[in-house]
Input
Amino acid sequence: MRYNQSMSKKYIATAIPYVNGAPHIGHALDYLLADVFARFCRQRGDEVRLQAGTDEHGNKIFQKAKNLGVPVTEYVEENSQQFRKFIEELEISYTDFIRTSSKEHIARCQEIWRRLTPHIYTAEYDGWYCEGCEGYVTQSEYDENQGVCPDHQKPYIRLAEKNYYLRISNFKEQIRELIERDRMRILPTFRKKELLKLLANAPDVSISRPREQLSWGIPVPGDDSQVMYVWLDALSNYITVLGYPDQDISDDWPATVQFVGKDILRFHAITWPAILLGLGLELPQNLVVHGYVLANGQKMSKSLGNVIDPMEVIHKYGVEAFRYYFLRHVDTFADADFTWEKYDNAYNNELANDLGNLVQRVATLCRKNQLGVQAGANYEVDQALTDEYAALMQNFEFSKAFDLVWDKIQYLNKFIDETKPWELAKQGKLEKLNQSLGKLIGNLQLISRLLAPFLPATAERIAEVFSQTEITPPETPLFPKS
Ligand code: MSP
Output
């Protein structure tokens, strides 16, 4: 692979989920996208920091614990561990894990509040609120959605209370300019446009709630009657995890990229930039916004009873199959569907047939013809493919990059069918045979490198087979047929 970028530090951040339940398959996306990019960067020699964590404050979580009759600290601890276990099952190469109920985070958040004081004022809030989003809702959003949150199917509630506000208006112009000039690049472009429209009418945001309304949160410094609004607390995780403000974070900040779902775009592209500018910090370089995973074409919800347990999906064919489906069949930027039928087909037709068979066929042909990898052999590498792939990966177009690799896998299967190496062997056309097998070996080595960010264990197994002086097929197929 050609390295055209010098080694550098990268900080990659993921949205931190609420711990009001177990992880579902939709939660996998932030982690998988971040992990693919992290592995791609490491392969190119970068030093990568990848953060994950859990968002543990707020009424939703407090209520849930209360209904279950469990102390809230125990409840969040247990669910946070479930998310951590999930991340580990997914083989996410994270380096940092933050819990927003940790002592360090709480103290750092309070210091962040103090530093933002010049941009904070108090006022009465009288308006709509979505408890599902833990978000304030404008009258026009209320009207447009006829009083019910489309993401949570829950009626908005009316709030009248004294709150602290962050003066978004102080930063609006600056944020607009930074986003327009791609200083914080929002991808895909249609999300950037959507955000710029939202920004034009963005009101100042409330950053606290009265303690009697919200007891499970970080106390506002200097005002015992108020608790920080969960989003201020949650967004700050991206820098408190690095040690801000006690430590110098200039080695890691600004983040190279943050991955978030489409429902939390405005928090990350309006509130978060305002906080950062208020603190005198730069904005993340990229904000990648992914779509939703649907189950059988429908939004997953507990009331519809169609929530898919990710552990069940992982345990059916293993984690590599899970990564394959969610990274290739879920377009990086669009909504996508999960059905067991699609999943089974992807496993059998693509992983087992296309890739598994290719590896088995080529390795068997090599063994029969006693062809191994010669020391110092320089197999022809498809530079155009490598370059196109790298360009897509750098632009966070992961599912497209994955498609390219798959096209190559399918092309190689066709190449074998057409060149029929077994006939070349029978006919004694040894030069032609060695040439064809050499091409296949070189391409499988390349495929292993290009697959590594997506399917790390599979890539390693392929590399292992096609690096030996005596090539032998893997003892068990890469993806046994189900
Ligand atoms: N706690 C906030 C994020 C705070 S970040 C400072 C939150 N939590 S969440 O649990 O609701 O969502 C966590 C992530 O999962 C978000 O990026 C969200 O968009 C994503 N998803 C939640 N459901 C999803 C799907 N069905 N499909 C894809 N992603 C989804 O928001």
Observations:
- The longest helix spans residues 340-368.
- Residues 15-18, 26-27, 29-30, 55, 234-235, 237, 260-261, 263-264, 292-293, 300 surround 5'-O-[(L-methionyl)-sulphamoyl]adenosine (CB under 6 Å).
- The mean pLDDT is 94.
- The two ends are 35 Å apart (CA to CA).
